[in-house]
Design a protein that fits this description.
Number of domains of chain B: 1
CATH class of chain B: Alpha Beta
Radius of gyration of chain A: 20 Å
Number of domains of chain A: 2
Oligomer: heterodimer
Distance between the termini of chain B: 22 Å
Strand content of chain A: 5-15%
Radius of gyration of chain B: 16 Å
Largest sheet of chain A: 5 strands, mixed
Shape of chain B: globular
Chain lengths: ~325, ~150
């Protein structure tokens, strides 16, 4: 893979940060136990730095760990991740001086399930997946097949406006340009918007019938940083601990409203969902809604107040009697 | 069927303690007529209303929710209603997106001297809800036996 140089640069930067004592921890990615996957690496040990990787499979939004790790942290961040970090700074959950952002200009992350569908094979049967500019080469049994990269990237990556971190301390080189496909990214949302209200409600009701209330969506979300979530309150008990679609849907809707102006469309909630509820069709709508109503984009300005902790005298009120 | 004929919308009103609640009081003392469909909950400020309250009311089967507070600039806490305005705008649009009729979520500014306006608002909202019909959003026949064990408002 061509990203060897970028990886080396990342490792030397991370090593220097730890050696000079500028940070207590490095949060990055290492190779996962399953083929092609990566997994978060949180370490204070210089010997572990060799394990850091950068490739088109670095899927997680690592900023979720910032509120849990004590001390100063060096963190690998793609475009959306860096916005999540800025959002946490805006909410005063993290101090800017406690974070060293190792920015990665993101080429878009490869969705392995899309690759499997394209190749018609399980990921274990694939020899290699490489990104070459705007193409992706999938090698099976020694034969490489080329596809446009737009066919294998995550939906949220296809709709990404800011792949390169705006806030960073070190910016690594780009290894491939981001390719976007706005129409494909909005496909599921447009389909829902084309439906009448009742079928739309029925759609969500049936999707959330599968929800097991594991709260993985909330736990991976860097915008969900409450120490105590309303779903765990017992006086009053807003939601029963038994999964029922009504409560599950209510939880998700309220969660979306709570993270309005914080969500950066990183897509982690949808990826974390064990029962494949299309959560991004909710989060992206909220993302577009705050842009439409208040011309606000999450995590763009660390000095700005959070969306719902601010107001303008001229805010919309045509709906108020 | 009998139930359908007798159906009247149930509306929850979250009224701010300083303006709208006093406006509602004034409506009463000035003998203004308005539908008895509203159940009033006093809140310190319209800024106190978490969207969670709105969802929970709909979840419990209420047909609509009205959030009412002081006019912009009149908030007892200076700015509470401005935050409420942002939150309500987002909530209303987002609930519309998932398929909830926006008529069910209402907001108004009613000052302490506007007993008449309070009566008008409640009348208009109630009429609107009659058009929209009963809230069956969270009803689920398959699991009715379970929901019956929950307390209902």
């Amino acid at each position: 893979m061509k990203d060897g140089n970028i990886e080396q640069k990342l490792q030397s930067e991370a090593r220097a940060l730890l050696k000079q004592g500028r940070v207590d921890y490095i949060i990055g990615f290492e190779a996962g136990s399953l083929k092609f996957t990566t997994t978060p690496l949180i370490t204070s040990n210089i010997a572990d730095i060799d394990r850091l990787v950068i490739n088109p499979f670095i899927v997680n939004n690592l900023s979720v760990y910032l509120t849990e790790v004590k001390g100063r942290v060096g963190i690998v961040a793609k475009g959306c991740d860096s916005r999540s970090i800025v959002s946490l700074i805006q909410d005063k959950q993290v101090a800017r001086e406690d974070v060293v952002i190792l920015g990665v200009p993101c080429p878009g992350i490869i969705d392995l399930s899309k690759v499997e569908r394209l190749a018609g094979k399980d990921r274990d049967e694939l020899d290699d997946i490489t990104r070459e500019g705007d193409r992706v080469v999938i090698t099976v049994d020694g034969n490489g097949r080329e596809f446009p990269a737009t066919e294998v990237l995550f939906d949220n990556c296809l709709g990404c406006d800011f792949p390169t971190p705006k806030e960073y301390d070190v910016l690594l080189d780009a290894f491939s340009p981001l390719v976007s496909d706005k129409a494909a990214s909005q496909e599921k949302l447009d389909k829902l918007k084309g439906m009448a209200p009742e079928p739309r409600w029925q759609f969500w009701a049936s999707e959330f019938d599968r929800c097991i209330l594991c709260y993985a969506c909330r736990n991976v979300c860097p915008a969900c940083f409450c120490q105590r979530c309303f779903v765990e309150e017992s006086e009053p008990q807003w939601i029963l601990p038994v999964p029922r679609w009504q409560d599950s849907l209510m939880f998700q809707v309220v969660r979306n409203i709570h993270v309005a102006g914080r969500c950066t469309d990183c897509g982690e909630c949808e990826r974390a969902c064990p029962v494949n509820i299309p959560l991004r069709s909710l989060t992206r709508e909220m993302y577009d809604l705050v842009d439409e109503l208040f011309h606000y984009q999450a995590g763009m300005d660390k000095e700005a107040p959070p969306l719902l902790a601010a107001y303008e005298l001229t805010d919309v009120e045509d709906f108020i009697r | 069927m009998k139930q359908d004929l007798e159906w009247e919308p149930r509306l929850v009103g979250f009224l701010c303690r300083w303006c709208s609640y006093v406006g509602a009081d004034l409506a009463g003392t000035s003998r203004k007529k308005y539908p008895a469909n509203i159940r009033v909950i006093m809140v310190p400020c319209s800024g106190r209303v978490d969207p969670l309250f709105i969802l929970k009311a709909l979840r419990l089967g209420f047909d609509g929710v009205l959030v009412s507070g002081c006019y912009p600039g009149d908030c007892h806490y200076q700015t509470g209603n401005y935050y409420a305005r942002r939150r309500m705008a987002i909530t209303k649009k987002f609930l519309e997106y998932i398929g909830i009729n926006p008529q069910r979520i209402q907001a108004s500014w009613v000052s302490a001297s506007e007993g008449g306006k309070f009566a008008e608002v409640v009348t208009a909202v109630t009429e609107g809800l009659k058009e929209v019909g009963p809230n069956k959003l969270f009803a689920d026949e398959r699991r009715e036996h379970r929901t019956k064990t929950t307390k209902r408002g």
